[in-house]
Amino acid sequence: MFSKRALRSAIGGSGAALLAATAALIAVTVPSAHAADPPLRDLAAAKGVYMGTALTASEATGASGPIAGAQFGMVTPGNEMKWDTVEPSRGTYNWAPGDSIVNFAQAHNMQVRGHNLVWHSQLPNWLTSGSFSNTELHSILIKHVTDEATHYKGKVVHWDVVNEPFNEDGTFRQDLWYNQLGSSYIADAFTAARAADPGAKLYLNDYNVEGTGPKSDGMYNLVKSLKQQGVPIDGVGFQAHLILGQVPSTFKANLQRFADLGVDVAITELDIRMQTPSDAARLQQQANDYTSVVNACLGVSRCVGITVWGVSDATSWIPGVFPGQGAALLYDDNYQPKPAYTAVRTALGGSTTTTPPTTPPTTPPTTPPTTPPGGGGCAVTYGVNQWNTGFTANLTVKNNGSAPVNGWTLKWTFAPGQTVTQAWNATVTQSGTAATATNLSYNGTIAAAGTVDFGFNANWSGSNPKPTGFTLNGTACTVS
Ligand code: G2I
Predict the structure, then answer these.
(1) Which of 81, 117, 122, 210 to mutate to test the pocket of ligand 1 (most atoms within 8 A of CB)?
(2) Ligand 1 midpoint to CA 317 (Å)
(3) Which of 118, 122, 123, 472 minimizes the number of CB atoms within 10 Å of its CB?
(4) Which atom, in ligand 1's list, is nearest to the CA of 54?
(5) Which candidate in 80, 87, 210, 269 is catalytic?
């Protein structure tokens, strides 16, 4: 008998495409060193699961966007569907940020996990300081859930209807909702969401519930009781904000016991943080940890997919909340895949080889390697943040010409003592005081009148002046 997952995989569009692609690869021998591996989204689809990422609006238009669109088949807005964004004043809705993520998803053939309808955090002031009566608060809650689920009807496949309702000991969190409405706010929110969008799968979502324990038990008891009461809950999300080397050994068994209650399960916000800076041993441990998490999901037939909480370490929430920690995702600060990426790919049935850089900087581009900025020249803005021995520079390069620049090289001269240590959104090399930045695979084109951003960290000694001249593909640029 086919499991639901095997059936999905056998008939799934991406799965079929993958099989066809695999057959084509077998028929034509492709030099293996540079044979492109299928993206994670296709490998996942062939296993009957999705692979997703969180994405904020600014990440979508930055360096994470092209990676997200290529590698992931599901997107969760990082902040754009939360209450403070969506309903900043009572009854007035701000859909544009969330809509921008939906548009991004549709443009990249991705699905959307809505996050979230009810939470204790990121609430607008009018709500937290409104001193509403219980009755009024209840109607505010139901209206918000109804209006948001209605707005995104047909566009969101899963909703995190209620997010993080538990304390660590498994009792209910004493937040605005529970304190005034009691635990029945949870059932009421699910019921309202179902009425507004009967097609969306409705999830309860929390963290520190991945392994068995008091918090997970609290959630288990709630789900069991909601199911017994006929409340429309379809799934349980396990956020999985994990710590290096601490993937719970009971993860799979725990997912399975929830699945046995008759709900889907999903890993919804996966990241695995470590002390920074990372090193080879930690990155390898992290790769092993990611493998364990993927295997836990694949081992449970009702585990429908995995979402990582962001594309790149460069913009992850972790360092801001856990100072000294980070490096938790699949792509590093320079948007290059880490051992964890290869581990996930392998666990999903892809190849075990280390991924070559997205496009090695030395690969000759197919289009003319360096078109000069068509006619109108270029302008560089160079922003600096400096401290006693180091600095961060953020550069914006504008193509003032009327034609796109395809493949770019920016050159400038440093002062003695200025030394780049790490760059993002570009490869930066240095020979003495001569510095060269070249595009990465995803940002090689600068549209007519368009810009590209990159930056670097560097050391300095003596003085730390701004470079006085830049050339873009050999043409001098103005500097500001
Ligand atoms: O905290 C990590 C996640 C835990 N589970 C629920 C998720 O919704 C949550 O996501 C994070 C976002 O990744 C952060 O980007 O939620 C944070 C807020 O609790 C988000 O951070 C906030 C910053 O703290 C604010 O300073 C900022 O104004 O993002 C806000 C919007 O950009």
Answers:
(1) 122
(2) 7
(3) 122
(4) 13
(5) 269
Question: What six digits make up the tokens of 350?
Answer: 């892809």
From 80, 164, 168, 210, the catalytic residue: 164
Cα torsion 263, 309, 242, 288: sign: positive
Reported as a single tens digit per residue, the pLDDT across 432-474 is 899 999 988 777 889 888 899 888 778 888 889 999 999 999 8
pLDDT in tens, 107-118: 999 999 999 999
Q: Where are the alpha helices (DSSP H) in 214-279?
A: 214-229, 251-259
Question: Does residue 80 carry a catalytic annotation?
Answer: no
210 is catalytic: no
Tell me the average pLDDT of the chain: 89
- The phi, psi pair for 407, rounded to 5°, reads 85, 120
Q: Is 206 in the pocket of ligand 1 (CB under 6 A)?
A: no
CA 301 to ligand 1 centroid distance, Å: 31
Residue-range domain boundaries for the chain: 22-347, 373-479
In CATH terms, 22-347 corresponds, of 3.55.50.30, 3.20.20.80, 3.20.20.450, 3.40.50.2300, to 3.20.20.80
pLDDT in tens, 73-94: 999 999 999 999 999 999 999 9
Inform me whether the pLDDT recorded for 367 exceeds 60.
no
Least confident of 22-36, 107-121, 195-209: 22-36
Half-sphere exposure at residue 175, Cβ-oriented, CA atoms within 13 angstroms: 21
Rounded to the nearest 5°, which phi and psi values hold at 18?
-65, -45
Domain 373-479 in CATH 3.40.50.2300? The answer is no
* Whether residue 269 has its Cβ less than 6 Å from ligand 1: yes
